[in-house]
Amino acid sequence: MACMSSKAGTMVRFNSSVSVVGSTTMVRLTDQASRSLPSRGQVSVRGTLNGHEFQTVVEPDGLRGHWIRIAPELQQDAGLEAGDSASVTIEVTPEWPEPELPPDLRAALEVAPKAVRESWHDITPMARWEWVRWVNATANPETRGRRVEVSISKLDSGKRRPCCFDLSACTDPSVSKSGKLVPEK
Description:
Blueprint: E1 3-4, E2 11-21, E3 24-28, H1 31-36, E4 43-49, E5 52-60, E6 66-69, H2 72-78, E7 85-92, H3 103-111, H4 114-122, H5 125-136, H6 141-156, E8 176-177, E9 180-181
Antiparallel strand pairs: 1-2, 2-3, 2-7, 3-6, 4-5, 4-7, 5-6, 8-9
């Protein structure tokens, strides 16, 4: 594994096995690769997977490491299946891609007061990722609905980020338990 720099521009190379947790295909960063990143939380990167380019946000695993979700199209292009070894190169980027908004949060923002919509567009893409992660961090429909409501309320009161949120936890309930990425089976 090679690494250079400590912030934007940090280049990390590693090999990892492709794994599947639930219906999510991923590669887990090696310990050394994770330590090379500037944050224990999410990190915006662009890179290659077996030579195929991608841009994403590396996710924390709640265990001081990280993982990368492999989109189905990228998995197909790279010709990878669970258990295959993948060659990964990532470079930390200062630009964050826009997060995919979950339908419930998107709907709430569409009908929110103009000031809330303006606040949403005024915050950074990194902050928008944090709001989306916070809303998505629960599988309970009632809790999720409440988080959408609280998001709109907090944005309306000028808050730019969710409060009291462990940014180093694995927050995708389909691949985590108690804030930690579940082991592959």
